[in-house]
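ok trying again, last paste got cut off:
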Amino acid sequence: MLSDNARKLLRIMVAYRHHFGYMPPMWQLQRRSSRRPEQIRAALQELVDERYIKWQPGALPETVVILEAWEREETGPSRRRRRR
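nice, full thing came through this time. structure:
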């Protein structure tokens, strides 16, 4: 399960890439997420660790390659719907 920062950053990057055709630079990530650069780098590293994106730490955010655009569902006991 992703942290709030990582989840928000993933959604921003997916939407920005879809709309503009390229990945957002750091200043756009800061503006759109209201996070500091160190928080953005930590969230990017979390996304790398969880295999949602490919990115070399220390590289520009524009070099990110999205592998999975949506957060995975937890694999736990399934809930059954109540029948009415």
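cool. The first strand starts at residue 53 and ends at 54. The mean pLDDT is 90.
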